[in-house]
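Feature request, filed as a ticket because there's no other form

It would be nice if the structure record came with a short human-readable summary line next to the tokens. Right now we just get the raw output. Example of a typical job, pasted below so the devs can see what we mean:
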Amino acid sequence: MLTLIEKILFAVAVLASLYFTYVTFSRMARVVLRGQGRLNFDDLPQRLWTGLIALIGQGRILRHRPVTSLFHFAIAWGFLFYFLVNAVDVLEGYLPGFRFLGDTTVGGLYRLLADALSIGVLIGMIYFLVRRFVVKSPVLTYHDNVKLHPKVPTGIPNDSLIVGGFILSHVGFRFLGASFLVAQEGGDPWQPFASAVATLWAGLSPGAQAAGWHVSWWIALGLILAFLPYFPYTKHAHLFIGPFNFMTRPQRRALGALDPIDFNNESIEQFGVARLTDLPQTHIVDAFACIMCNRCQDACPAYVTGKELSPSALEVNKRYHIWDDMTGLAAGKEDPLTLLEYAISESAVWACTSCGACVEVCPVGNEPMFDILNIRRDQVLMNSTFPHELKGAFTGMERNGNPWQMASDRLEWTKSLPFKVPTVEENPDFDVLYWVGCAGAFDPNAQAIARAIATVLNAAGVNFAVLGNNESCTGDVARRAGNEYLFFEMAQANIELLNSVGADQKRIVTGCPHCLHTIGQEYADFGGNYTVLHHTQLLTELVGSGRLKLSPPQEGGQGGVTFHDPCYLGRHNGIYDSPREALAQAGLTLLEMNRRKNNSFCCGAGGAQMWKEEEHGMQAVNANRYAEAKATGADTLAIGCPFCARMLNDANTQAGSPMKVKDVAEIVAEAITQHSA
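Raw output as currently delivered:
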């Protein structure tokens, strides 16, 4: 029980602590509001629920690093429960004889939870401190070639030490206080850990035990009040900013769906992102939400293969830059530095494959991939700065409607087929429009895939047609490379074409996940709404309905198959089952890679990488992925994307391996025995 003077002093300290904490958070809010657009508060009840589930469930944390995640879970739950614990402790100091929920069973359960979670937090915090300062886990470091804010190398460990010391001290002294209280009461079966420590104080006088509780109470709660104003500056603010991030981030049609630029708005002076304040508000929140766990870095194909890109470093650098002059930025001061000057190098910007792994894996909902793609927009549209190899792809799309710069016949791939592939002019009453894509039309390997898809459609008696020479690139390459205006023009032209042939009323099937994503997810922002299927979805449908009959694999085909999940099929569009189902229908044994489905590793072609030299690193991305596929022992590497086929075929050739790289459609086409329409 506190004296009157102590109660007054504590109340004043609480008000002062809350005031200084509010000042810092309000500055952070004003910095966020300097960003573009707005935070998304639509459907607020559902979003509140989403944030609450993210906070309590810790679902994304538990996906990876199971041991570390378990300790984080203990700390997070203990931290949350300690809001109640600290409130109860304050009441115990202010109200004579106060005992929360009395000696009821519920009151006992409260004390049991407080006792157990205190130990859990202490053990968890010791684990994390040992992991950082003794074991020095490599996952908490960065490659030497990654751009870092000058304060990051010392700032992160110092912050960890300060916060770790605070948590150990606060929870430790609160636990000691509970043990002194148990000693005064002669024991408490609901607090086994505190009771064990209380035996140490059994020989003390009642006055000494009361003094021990009194001192522990002041230290534990005093530390809270001293720490609160510093709390917003720590990475542990993610405990609240992370759920807020989930609540307010954009509601995207798919993981990687980019926001359009309104080129008809003449008031827009900046296209893309050059400075912090050019970022959308939600991506400034990302900087404050970042937990610095480096899970995104572990998943990033560019970082894993030694490139300069670290999605984690990008967010951390943004945060430290804000801290350099948060007062000025909050007051409206012009930011003198571009993101390329302090947050990320130019090489790192162009190393991104737009695979979406960083977005998928982030436990607090950050989207560093979008920062990078928006920086590319600034570089291309505002500065005409981009890797020189992309000029050819841009020119090809502008002049010939494809990044290969080929003006040849888009129906060339059909000429060796034993049946006619009809165009929409020849078959205007089609049920399915087969979107071949640039790769299927012009790349020799992908042409074989296109023929396999057409063979399957023909064998199943599908009433389909193609656009033929009227088909043009979807613009995916231009968009991911930052040339948004070129994409905008191509999207408008394609939407007009698709609508003119009635594709908006039919189903579109494609063998290219990039085309699937662009037409199915991104054209909607420009008025194009279509039902787009990946060819494996239609294949499984045809086999399941009996329209397509498959025979068991021939001799030599029993060695098993492993499937590579294309980023734009899996992570970006959530299609994981149909390729595997198609392989099973063909009678093949699936040997899975460790990195699969939403944890799949990129082939290295996405994000316009197919059209430029790979940034310098320790290893090629496709070589890394191919090695994992080879390690499964499978005879065949199955893919579902023409660009993945190109990259993994190249890696296979370089390795001199007898492993076969085939699209699922090629495997199914080989297994066809008959069809019944």
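Something like this underneath would help us a lot:
Residues 391-675 form one domain.
The CA atoms of residues 350 and 569 lie 22 Å apart.
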